[in-house]
Amino acid sequence: MILILLEEQQVIFHRWNNIPPSRTMSSWLDRPIKGVLLDITGVLYESGDGKGVVIPGSVKAVEKLKTSGIPVRLVTNETCATRTAVVDKLRFHGYKVSEADIFSPVPAAIAILKERGLSPHLLVHPAIEDEFKEVIKGSPSCVVVGDADEGFSFENMNKAFRTLLNMEKPLLFALGFGKYYKHQGMLQMDVGAFASALEFACDLKSEVVGKPSRQFFGAALSDIGVPAEEAVMVGDDIVSDVGGAQNCGIRGVLVRTGKFTAPWENHPVVKPDFIANNLAEAVDKIIEAQKK
Amino acid sequence: MILILLEEQQVIFHRWNNIPPSRTMSSWLDRPIKGVLLDITGVLYESGDGKGVVIPGSVKAVEKLKTSGIPVRLVTNETCATRTAVVDKLRFHGYKVSEADIFSPVPAAIAILKERGLSPHLLVHPAIEDEFKEVIKGSPSCVVVGDADEGFSFENMNKAFRTLLNMEKPLLFALGFGKYYKHQGMLQMDVGAFASALEFACDLKSEVVGKPSRQFFGAALSDIGVPAEEAVMVGDDIVSDVGGAQNCGIRGVLVRTGKFTAPWENHPVVKPDFIANNLAEAVDKIIEAQKK
């Protein structure tokens, strides 16, 4: 159902713009590609009831990269599930991955809180609350906002707001800063929106842990020892994935799966290095170019 | 209880800053004052259970202005109650006012929707929903966000978000754009924060109906036929009341009641023309100056 809708969107788009289905915005394949970063939801699987639906060709595409000797890391802003749960879901769909392959905001945030001796007030999904247990010590010295989903109630927003206002120097960490994502076929507002509400009310700027933060992309790249200029990021979020990566000197490829929408083909700010129909097409281009 | 807290805040502030309790930021009384605009909550009464608590001296202050022949209009961003309910509450506290004295965002918004032939999707308090009945015609062509209070659930925020995203040209009206207000002795996030979340998610800017919009202050002033430079606005919100008024050329007086907090005495952006302990003090200064 989702795929049919996406195809319809593409058809409409092509009728409007009269351009071929895939197009190269720049010579993105001229430079070597020695590492690939992949977003998970919308690139490897579509979210949905239970474990969601695998995106056709994506399992094979990840295998192809690995077989070609190109290291892959999964860079996600997923904060509704633990890394273990994400690995379980990926394995269910046939991906051969482990926790070490995944870069997600929660462990990154916990490392920051430990390093700076901060104790958080949490506005996060119940599924990940337990992971913060070790850093909760005494009264809160910061607020951590993740994708709390239904937890973004008026009451919980106000609790976070008042906690910030009571601090001498209010400190807000946002686990990602996305605008929206697709959940069970519907778009819903992401953490960036609710963090914006807190920022406005408290007159502050959040520290983003996750995409599009430079540190976050940097951590994934240093794990595979690949410099930004030799890496490619593939994602379905034009701002957080593509724009975020480009901002770090990483080439950004947008896929027409997940939450992709036709107007992004001509986004006013972010110009992807390549727009692919799906991960399979992007990976084929990458591998083909490496053979030359 | 609220007043005791405010006094404590003042004491703390004065200890820190060593300045007298009231101070003139500029010669605000040099120009004639021919009309006064007053915020309601936090100036005439403190919000609280039921009808709240009248602020000592404020009833008499409003009477004094009227007796002196200075016309008064009440300019409020109240969107949790109808104008009738606000008038009832004011009369309960002893204020001699009628609906015609009150400028609130709901009638102003309805007039705009009528004029532009727009049908709203509402994210507002249930108490004011009925007032929009006459302009709801067919599928929504705009979203109106007011202080929905508990109505700011994840579900309702997403409904508004998806409605905006489905429009060819998303259009969001915000009934005021406050950061927060005091409710039953507690600060809670105001409409500006939730409108900011929608703005971020949908990449748009809202049209503000209410303070601090220039049109809104302008409508109240033209009702009393007083030019901006001969008017004064008294409020407890440094940005929306004081900054908003000053932005229109109206002198802005901040009161140390309502949601006033000590750091506002040295606000980095807005410099009130005068900071008064309460409305009574501000009105005494105004009337005294008019006699000279």
In short:
The structure is a homodimer of 292-residue chains. In chain A, 38% of the residues lie in helices and 18% in strands.
Describe this structure in words.
- The structure is a homodimer of 292-residue chains.
- In chain A, helix 2 runs parallel beside helix 10 and helix 6 packs across helix 7.
- With 292 residues, chain A is an alpha/beta fold.
- The radius of gyration of chain A is 19 Å and the shape is globular.
- In chain A, the strands form four sheets. Chain A has a seven-stranded mixed beta sheet with strand order 1-15-14-13-2-5-6, sandwiched between helices.
- The N terminus of chain A is likely disordered.
- Chain A is built from ten helices and 15 strands.
Largest sheet of chain A: 7 strands, mixed
Strand arrangement in the largest pleated sheet of chain A: 1-15-14-13-2-5-6
Contiguous uncertain segments of 5+ residues of chain A = 1-26
Mean pLDDT of chain A: 90
**Helicity of chain A, in percent?**
25-40%
Query: What is the count of helical runs of chain A?
Result: 10
Structural class of chain A: alpha/beta
Shape of chain A: globular
Largest interface summary: A-B, 31 and 31 residues
Order of H and E elements of chain A:
HEEEEHEHEHEHEHEEEHEHEHEEH
Determine the oligomeric state from the structure: homodimer
Beta-strand fraction estimate of chain A: 15-25%
Number of strand segments of chain A? 15
Rg of chain A, Cα atoms, Å: 19 Å
Alpha carbon gap, first and last residue of chain A: 38 Å
